[in-house]
Amino acid sequence: MKNQTNLTSIQLMLFIVQTQIGVGVLGLPFSVFSISKGDAWISVLLAGIVVQLLITIFWVLGRRFPAKSLFQYSIQLVGKAGGTFINVSYVFYGVLVTSLILMYSTAIIKTWVLTLTPKWIIMLLLMGTAVYLGRELLSDICNVYVVVSGLIFFLILISIVVLIIYPVDWRYLLPIGHSGGTKILKGIKEAYFSMLGFELLLFLFPYFQHNGKRSVLFSASMANLFVTLLYAFLTIVSLITFSPEELVIIPQPVLYYVKSLYLQIVERIDLVFVSLWVVSVITSLTSYLFLSTEGVAHTFKRIKRSVITIFFGSSAFIIALIPNKEAEMELYNKWVINTSYLFILIIPFLLLGISFIFKKKERGKNV
Amino acid sequence: MRKKCIIGLVLLIINLSLAGCWDQRLLKNGRLVFSSSFDMVDEDTIRATAIIRDFKDQTPTNVVVQGEGQTIRETRMSMDRKISGVFEPSKNRVFLLGEELAKKDIYKFLDIFYRDPNSSISAKLAVVEGNGGDILTKLSEKNVLISEFIIELLTSAEVSTGIPKQNLQTVCTVMFDEGKDFALPLIKMKDGEVVLDGTAIFHKNSQTGTLSFKESSLYLLMNNQKAKRTRFVSKIGSDNKMNIDNYITYNVSKSKSKLKIVSDTPENIQVKIDVKMDISIVEYPKDKLTDKSELKKLNKKISNDLTVDAKKMIEKIQLANSDLFGIGRELIAYHPKTWEKIKWAETYPTITIVPTIKVDIVGHGIIN
Description:
The structure holds two protein chains of two kinds.
Chain A: H1 9-20, H2 24-36, H3 40-64, H4 70-112, H5 119-134, H6 138-148, H7 150-165, H8 181-195, H9 201-208, H10 213-241, H11 244-247, H12 253-259, H13 269-299, H14 305-321, H15 326-357
Helix pairs in contact in A: 1-6, 1-10, 1-13, 2-3, 2-8, 2-10, 3-8, 3-9, 3-10, 3-15, 4-5, 4-13, 4-14, 4-15, 5-13, 5-14, 6-13, 7-10, 7-13, 12-13, 13-14
Chain B: H1 2-18, E1 30-40, E2 46-56, E3 59-69, H2 72-80, E4 86-88, E5 94-98, H3 99-102, H4 107-115, E6 124-128, H5 132-142, H6 146-159, H7 168-175, E7 183-190, E8 193-203, E9 206-211, H8 213-222, E10 231-235, E11 247-265, E12 268-283, H9 292-319, H10 327-334, H11 336-341, H12 344-347, E13 352-363
Parallel strand pairs in B: 1-4, 1-5, 5-6, 6-7, 12-13
Antiparallel strand pairs in B: 1-2, 2-3, 7-8, 8-9, 10-11, 11-12
Helix pairs in contact in B: 4-7, 8-9
């Protein structure tokens, strides 16, 4: 962990933003809409509040062990056997999410852009880039994330152009609250998948704690605020460009409204959009690979970092190749999302509880 | 040194693999389609006519191909067999729909374009009185740039508020909207010439009526869709010796329309559409446009004339059951309780829509 003290809070913020924005961004309005209809944007905002609560809890937990990541204090809290088990499961979780992202992004690229290209080539190209970046140290990854964050603004810009050029109808949002409270609450669950990525805070905390504990919470919250507002914006744009019945049949509304733009010179702006979006997908892949690599690198200090990343990258690649049909992918998706509750809700809560009850904590001074 | 050699070798090998791509579509293999039309031959068979751009001695020429089939994709396959090279419709800028086909559910025929990522959904759409194929073949005899001609015909009418700005995608949005209907430009053959003849209006996804050019401009103004230019001619008298003295021609420089639901009881829905516009006179042989009382009279006469026209137009669209103003959407958004109680397709023709148009003369050119 040499020379990693120059990490700034902005880097933490962009790390979380880049992890959260990924494959889900294109389909988020559709999946939330299919549950909470015209009030999908409310669900997205509420999901942001839920995520904010979780971030605060992670921060409270991380603050008690400022110099350590979850991989280290888990052993301290629940003993060697239990801690190792938790660590191994987080490593697996990282691999599972990596292959989930890989699967879905490849499916989208294949249906929208490269229809004839074999699946494994696209996956290999995505994975290759992610592994190449993921084997580096955190500071290097962060630097790349900061540079590519500029691309997100292009995504926003293109959506604003749609708002101006396309004959949108704001009345599609009305009447507000028509779908009812339960449906809006259920919609939160759909938005949650696209928000995944903030749990990386559990592992990033020690790298950024030198900026001050409060600044860690602040950057994580800013990241969450940015992503929530961005998602709500994209959802609203999708809701007002497509009529409700139409949105039901468009699984990637964000891409579809970009496709319907016609600027004299460029015929298919959706291709430009996909190329920008692929960068966000790769950063998400990288972050989860980094999570898995961290978990192992802590335990087995002798193994080279790149070897670990390549190993996890190829296992995620192989898992992603298994499902063939959309139904199988959905099954896998459902399964991963359900297990994610374990890693995002149950384990951190458990650890926090134990830490409170047994008054186990450390001060930041003895780094 | 050795390391460098290895890297160089690897790069060279990678270079070889870069030349191939599964998804390349080379221009030299494709036959670009620029406009196409779809007609019904009989109850079940569709005939597609496509104009393919070719180059002979560096001047563009057109080739007409036709294909028949049960589905649009089948017509494409049949056309593909008739031409050399690959049938490449992704640059298609204009689609013409034959009358018979437009009277059926047009979404069924357009589905292929929404489904295929390569199709250009910003292409223009128009309905043809009679057969679309006839228009394309007629135009190709004259050997003009057919698609450019049709597109310019449509865009110039869009600029002068004659037809609504629609493309494949915007139409799709309205097709799926239960509280809104749409209108498409209507093209027809007249004395061997291709002319734009107002708009075809739709109920759900099928054509149920037509509007003349003037009526569609009026509709666009009332729907707040004024484009750059709007020009009307009104009759303001009948007792003048010269017939031309009975008429006045004016530009609409500013127009604002307000749609208001006055009563939302399910049995008696009343809608008011108030339009206020500023106009400037462009032709009025009787002159003397500085007289205040004369102006007032003119304002009133023109307002009356337009209101009468608007009433006729609304009668027409209600008869066609075409909710062009999106009153249904207005009800969904602001009166959801009423909406739940009614069957819109049955209620819409019976509701009361009252238009009022008020004009104000603000300009008269460089003479009085």
